Amino acid sequence: MSVNYYFISDLHIGGDEALGVCDYEAELIEFLRNLAAQPEDVELLIVGDIFGMWEFTNITGPQKMHALMQQFPNIFAAFREAGEKIKITMLPGNHDYEIACFPEFVDLLKAYNINLEQTPATSRHLAGKRIWIEHGNQYDAYNHMPDFGNPYAEPVGYFITSGMVSAAGRHSQYGRYNWLKDIQSVYPTEQVPHWVVSNYFYHEMSSWLRWLFLPFLLLSGLTTFVLVGAALEWLGVTQTNIFLHNGLFTALGFLGNLVQIVLIINAIVFVVLGALFVPLSFILRDIKETLKRFRLVLPADDLNREKERSYLDAAQAVFADDPDTVIFIYGHTHVPSLRRFDNRVVINTGSWLKRLERVPIRFGYLPDIYVPSYFLDYVKISEADGKIVIECRQVDKAQPQELNLLQRLLVSRKPRHLQDPIPERTLIEV
Predict the structure, then answer these.
(1) Which of 7, 136, 341, 422 has the most CB atoms less than 10 A away?
(2) Which long-range contacts (CB under 8 A, 24 or more apart) does 168-177 make?
């Protein structure tokens, strides 16, 4: 009987303070129990970053595993119970790179029926073909381990994570809303400044200040019409500013007068800012185009495709080196995908972390809203009728209800899971 392989990655369990909570603990435990109840032969492969070890800042080495066991005893108990029925294999990622560096981790995890492979990549065979499996951080310049297995070979990404993500975990609880801990869910990381501004405005700004600015920001989109109306009046085309003085505002009475005042103030601000910044805008635009030309600044979608390209190139190199390898599996980027190249497939296993989709506001100049959602992805690969069957599935989880009233009123659409939907079932001829 052939083995049914299941793949998950990038759970990022554990860390300092607020990071010591797993939002999908119940779903993970149920997932393990369901796998253990399968009648067929099953192996679960965890493709790196199951633990957030970089997010611990005051302890080192195997002490981090003991801290994780204390934080999540139910999860480790579920691994031990499931591991009595199925095989569980774990690969190191970058956030839990320490498990590749100390031999003690092998025995610590073995006690919970988890087989740790302290290598950057591994493989499995199915239907006479080979499946290549690795976390993928070795193709990321910021998270590449130049001397794999050396605990002191820490890439730039380590210092960013330990300095920024762990600090967010320690300070998140002090906010009006516990949002800062979700910084590791912001992807690509270039969006972090926009995400911070959004959360400051919608969560941390004083309520009276937010509601004071809100009418001006909401109506700012109409300011252009007011300026056009003023220009038409100045040129003598119209006798009055038709966009400012009209029957609608008159009918609204006091409310109409308030809207007129807001629009007039906005118009004055626009004129002042225009006089100050229009000359500079040409220089800033030229600088931005220069940065794009050097590929230092890219739109989010282009940036994602640029990053994915390195993994697709790595997969092609593996396919060229071994013609029997038909599947390349990786994680790391948190963006699930399935790319097919003739009879070969490249799969990204996604992440169980909360996802944040940046949704723009349709009108006004308010900060974009980051809509949270969960998509607990896993991949099953099996053999049936002489073919390799790839199934991309999700564990059910209730979606978070974290947007406040203002955000719910302003958000223009529900979050999209993926721009390129993944087929639920893919067949590879062997």
Answers:
(1) 136
(2) 168/18, 169/15, 169/16, 169/17, 169/18, 169/19, 169/20, 169/55, 170/16, 170/17, 170/18, 171/17, 172/17, 172/18, 173/17, 173/18, 175/203, 175/204, 176/203, 176/204, 177/203, 177/204, 177/402, 177/404
Name 68's Cβ contacts closer than 8 Å, sequence gap at least 6. 13, 14, 51, 53, 76
Mean pLDDT of 79-99: 96
Query: Tens digit of pLDDT for each residue in 229-255?
Result: 666 667 767 777 766 777 666 777 777
In this prediction, residues 127-133 reach a mean pLDDT of: 95
Nearest CA-CA partner of 56 in 206, 184, 163 = 163
**396, 311 Cβ separation under 8 angstroms:** no
Cβ-based neighbours of 268, under 8 Å, separated by 6 or more: none
Q: Which two tokens stand for residue 18?
A: 């607020």
Using CA atoms, how far apart are residues 243 and 391, in angstroms rounded to an integer? 57
Which range has the worst mean pLDDT, 82-91, 113-122, 394-403? 394-403
- Measure the N-to-C terminal CA separation of the chain; round to a whole number of Å: 17
Over 70: is that where the pLDDT of 420 sits?
Answer: no
* 98-115 pLDDT tens trace: 999 999 999 999 999 999
Taking CA atoms, 138 is separated from 10, 135, 321, in Å, by: 15, 8, 18
Say what angle helices 254-293 and 223-234 make with each other, to 10 degrees.
100
| Helix, strand, coil share (%) of the chain residues, nearest 5 | 45, 20, 35
pTM for the whole structure: 0.83
Helix ranges (DSSP H) in 50-165: 63-71, 73-83, 104-110, 156-160
| 280 against 109, higher pLDDT | 109
Which is more confidently placed, 302 or 78? 78
Whole-number Å distance between alpha carbons of 378 and 394: 6
Query: How far, in Å, CA of 132 to CA of 323, rounded?
Result: 12
Q: How far is CA 352 from the centre of its chain?
A: 9
